[in-house]
Amino acid sequence: MLPKTFTITQPTRLTFGAGSVDTLATLVRSFGGTKAFLVVDPGVKQAGLLDKITAPLKRDQLAFEIYDKLTPEPGLKLADNGCKLAKKAGCDCVVGVGGGSAMDVAKAVAILMTNGGKAEDYLGLGKIKKPGVPKIMVPTTAGTGAEVTFTAVFINEKTKSKGGMNGDPLYPEAALLDPELTLSMPPHVTAATGIDAFIHAVEAYLSTQAHPISDMYALEAIELISQNLPRAYAHGGNLDARTNMMLGSLLGGKALATAGVGLVHAMSYPLGGMFGIPHGLANAVLLPYVIEYNLIGNPSKYAAVAEVMGYDTSDLPLREAAALAVEAIYNLNRDVGIPGSLAELGIPAERIEEMADIALTVTRPVENNPRRPTRADVIQVYQNAMAGWE
Predict the structure, then answer these.
(1) CATH 3.40.109.10, domain 187-387, yes or no
(2) Per DSSP, what are the bridge partners of residue 125?
(3) Which among 289, 226, 278 is positioned nearest to 252, based on CA atoms?
């Protein structure tokens, strides 16, 4: 059944392809920028990529300021501090370089520069009133899809909980997607970010808010990522696999921006907020357990997931075909070295009930989920993920 109505907002200008980062200065100037505030993931410097970002700015004599005091799970203060530094430096454009954390901080800094106040003032939906300064995203992982979403997620230092700013003004004005920037990602980062992108696509496809356009993006992303993530993990220098992964991540981001995500994301928030587990890794470990729980909510779509992942479902009853999705996803996790349980992440079992209570407060993903979970259900899924696969 088609939804009665759906709304799509996709304002981001995209430039995709190897070497596209060379156009960064021209892109900044096209939005009236004269000095760029570069929000840079520390991993970008460690991988030796920073020169590739700054070289076109230096060549075209475009001034810039670098802000690289970031953490994998950023707190709200990083956005507040970044805004102060950007204003002091006289910047009029923000460029987010790296994974989801860098891009989220960049989006928030751009919004704070024009809206005022502190980042915590804008947690929730629809609280941002003014457009930010122009913001351009340059992802260096194929994972979050943050370059095309209207969300920026942070740890609230006061509550130790994880939450997001959400609103159309957070959509970046532009993004440069250069797969050459992902070639140096180590295997474990390739795996965690790649499965994160895969989860965006799967959860958007199964979302109660899904519609024909989000399904189109999601199914293509599921196929691209499931076919290319093992290749990129096995040989990081495979530009063809890296290109397909970046495209899959982009499409997964577009799918989640238009249909939302589900219970995997809600349940991963406590892992990041309470224990500092990186977002992609937390999602990846939880994924097969949540999928197993969700199967009865939409078996025909889970059967389609298994099919686009390369499994033959033609002669199977619907329930068996749907169950193949769990097997396919578990095998994908295993192929790229994702831990098989929460216990392997060092999560204490005695905190499960507290985690469940927090997960159920992440209301939008819970409401999007194809099966409406109770507190007991969430506890059971956490317990299953703690025990691991037999």
Answers:
(1) no
(2) 166
(3) 226
